[in-house]
Amino acid sequence: MRSKFRSYDESLKKALKNRNEALEYLKAAMTDEDPRVFLVAINDVIAALKISKTELARRTGLSREYLYRGLSIAGNPRWDTMWKVLNAIGFRLDVGPKSLNKAS
Fold first, then answer.
1. pTM of the full structure
2. Which of the two residues, 99 and 93, has the higher pLDDT score?
3. Chain-centre distance of CA 14, in angstroms?
4. Taking CA 55 as the corner, what is the angle to CA 8 and CA 13, rounded to the nearest 5 degrees?
5. Confidence band of 94 (pLDDT split at 50, 70, 90)
6. Does 95 score more than 90 pLDDT?
7. How deeply is 27 buried, as exposed, middle or buried, from its count of CB atoms within 10 A (0-12, 13-18, 19+)?
8. Is 21 helix (H, G, I), strand (E, B) or coil?
9. Is the four-CA dihedral 32, 38, 39, 44 of positive or negative sign?
C-alpha cells in the first residue's frame, strides 16, 4: 500500500517541473552565502526535468565527467559552465539590487 504522503524529494521534483517554481527555487538558492546551496538547487532542477548528464553534456558542449565534477557538492564550476548549464535547462543568470537592511 502506497503511503498517503509523498516524500519531500518526490514533492520537490513535482514542484520543480513548473518553470516558475524552479525559477523561484533557483533565485532563493542564489541568495545563500554558501555556493553549494546553488549547486544543490541546480541539480534538483535538472533531476526534476529528467535531464541526464549525457543530455546536459550534449546541450552544453561540456563533457559528462566535467559536469559530474563541476556540479557536485564539492564542485567549483567556472562562470561559463554555470551560464551554459542554466541556458541548457532554460534559465539565465540575472543581477538585481541587494536588499538594504535599515538597521545598517
1. 0.85
2. 93
3. 14
4. 10
5. confident
6. no
7. middle
8. helix
9. positive
Q: 16 near 44, Cβ under 8 Å?
A: yes
CB count in 10 Å sphere of residue 22: 22
Residues 28-87: tens digit of each pLDDT: 999 999 999 999 999 999 999 999 999 999 999 999 999 999 999 899 999 999 999 999
What are the phi and psi torsion angles at 103 (to 5°)?
-75, -15
User: 73 to each of 1, 98, 102, 104, how far by Cα in Å?
Assistant: 35, 26, 34, 33
Q: How far apart are CA 2 and CA 43, in angstroms?
A: 27
Which distant-in-sequence residues (6+ apart) come within 8 Å of 84 by Cβ?
Answer: 60, 61, 62
- What is the predicted pLDDT for the residue at 103? 58
The C-alpha cell 532563493 sits at 28
Of the chain, the percentage scoring pLDDT greater than 90 comes to 77
List phi, psi (to 5°) of 66: -65, -40
In 3D, which of 76, 28, 79, 25 has the Cα closest to residue 47?
Answer: 25
